[in-house]
């Protein structure tokens, strides 16, 4: 959990700690146990794993800690002192969702013979939407897996966690702002600490009070960086859902994405497993108000308007036309948006806002090559030869009628 002091009190996880204590205690009776601590990113899995290691040490177990980050392998437990090989032990693995087939086999099989010592494996991992190598082991009837699933914190525990970070309990006004995090530990901590760093929170005596209701830069950057780590389909779905509101029907999202609902099910599973959306009877709801606000703010207003217009089935709005000189030859100019696809209209609007191809690609979850491809089509359809000309067309709301395209230089 980013920002949490390792020895700070563990807030709101009393039931989980009690269960872990009971399960880890089984190894003292000679039983082998496999425990997984599961949940979406930022829910506190690593913090609870550290607590489980302390519990194991309290029982007198030797603890082998392993960490994976997707680049390095966890492997099996470290070699222990030969004199301790007959004693019970614990293996704790963080980010276990990064384990591959070799890692899983080594982790479970090493020193795992029937005559080996009692042991407990404690694995912290993200909830999975697919079937990675570890899932096959966990679902095995012989594994004896015990799952500890983490959700959000209850309001009282969330405010206690905020008080730990701020050094004082929040007053009523600040508590309402922090409550937008919905009890998600990482977002709550980054919201509180970021606001404190930027002067949006003041600590006076024994209370923390709200000065300015403004999203801290560190939180905005963290969420943007996290989203860029997912697939383009993932980012596209969450942006469409965010543009359409805090709660939206799956059918409407599918319509805007121009996809059959069945084709979107794998992406929906990924989004739900990541803790971004909840799916209840076809209604998609953002897990918390803060996350919806952050993702919505990641998109320019022109993109949000285009997506909402597409969802409503209404014609795409165009800016009022500015007076233009009549053309000596050719038909009357038409609204530029009527001749562009939805994707092309969005890209044209972002060019008008001054974004480069690379910035547009990052905003829309596309490659710069794809943006360049769409932009060439926009140039051809509108009969313009430069970004300056395109900006003038978008600002005026009209463009030349389709005709032979001029020679195009590669867009910047």
UniProtKB/TrEMBL annotation:
Keyword Ion transport among record annotations: no
Keyword set, alphabetical order: DNA-binding, Transcription, Transcription regulation
PANTHER family: DNA-BINDING TRANSCRIPTIONAL ACTIVATOR DEVR_DOSR
Annotated region (Disordered), positions in chain: 309-336
Name of protein: Helix-turn-helix transcriptional regulator
Entries under CDD domains matching the protein: LuxR_C_like (cd06170)
Phylogenetic classification of the source organism: Bacteria, Bacillati, Actinomycetota, Actinomycetes, Kitasatosporales
GO MF annotations in UniProt: DNA binding
PROSITE patterns associated with the record: HTH_LUXR_2 (PS50043)
Domain HTH luxR-type stretches: 333-398
Gene Ontology annotations of biological process type: regulation of DNA-templated transcription
SUPFAM superfamilies: C-terminal effector domain of the bipartite response regulators, P-loop containing nucleoside triphosphate hydrolases
Compositionally biased spans, kind Low complexity: 314-335
């Amino acid at each position: 959990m980013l920002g949490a002091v390792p020895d700070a009190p563990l807030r709101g996880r009393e039931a989980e700690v009690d269960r872990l204590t009971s399960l880890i205690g089984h190894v003292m009776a000679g039983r082998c146990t496999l425990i997984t601590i599961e949940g979406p990113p930022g829910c506190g899995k690593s913090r609870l794993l550290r607590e489980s290691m302390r519990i194991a040490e309290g029982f007198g177990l030797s603890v082998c800690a392993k960490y994976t980050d997707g680049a390095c392998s966890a492997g099996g437990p470290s070699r222990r002192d030969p004199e301790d090989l007959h004693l019970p032990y614990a293996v704790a693995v963080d980010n276990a969702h990064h384990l591959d087939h070799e890692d899983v086999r080594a982790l479970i099989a090493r020193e795992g013979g029937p005559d080996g010592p009692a042991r407990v494996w404690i694995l912290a991992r993200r909830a999975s939407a697919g079937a990675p190598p570890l899932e096959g082991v966990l679902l095995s009837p012989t594994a004896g897996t015990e799952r500890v699933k983490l959700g959000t914190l209850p309001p009282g525990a969330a405010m206690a966690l905020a008080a730990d970070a701020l050094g004082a309990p929040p007053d009523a006004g600040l508590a309402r702002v922090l409550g937008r995090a919905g009890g998600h530990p990482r977002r709550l901590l980054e919201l509180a600490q970021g606001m404190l760093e930027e002067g949006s929170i003041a600590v006076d005596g024994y209370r923390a009070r709200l000065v300015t209701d403004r999203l801290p830069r560190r939180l905005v950057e963290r969420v943007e960086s996290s989203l860029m780590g997912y697939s383009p389909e993932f980012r596209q779905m969450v942006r469409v859902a965010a543009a359409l509101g805090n709660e939206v029907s799956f059918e409407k999202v599918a319509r805007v994405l121009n996809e059959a609902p069945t084709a979107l099910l794998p992406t929906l599973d990924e989004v739900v497993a990541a803790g971004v959306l909840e799916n209840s009877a076809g209604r998609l709801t953002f897990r918390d108000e803060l996350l919806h606000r952050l993702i919505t703010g990641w998109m320019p207003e022109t993109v949000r308007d285009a997506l909402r217009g597409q969802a409503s089935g209404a014609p795409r709005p165009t800016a009022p036309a500015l007076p233009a000189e009549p053309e000596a030859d050719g038909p009357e100019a038409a609204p530029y948006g009527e001749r562009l696809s939805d994707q092309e209209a969005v890209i044209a609007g972002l060019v008008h806002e001054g974004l480069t191809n690379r910035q547009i690609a990052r905003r829309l979850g596309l490659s710069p090559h794809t943006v360049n491809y769409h932009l060439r089509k926009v140039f051809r359809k509108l009969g313009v030869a430069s970004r300056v000309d395109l900006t003038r067309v978008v600002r005026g709301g009209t463009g030349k009628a389709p005709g032979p395209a001029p020679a195009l230089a590669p867009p910047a």
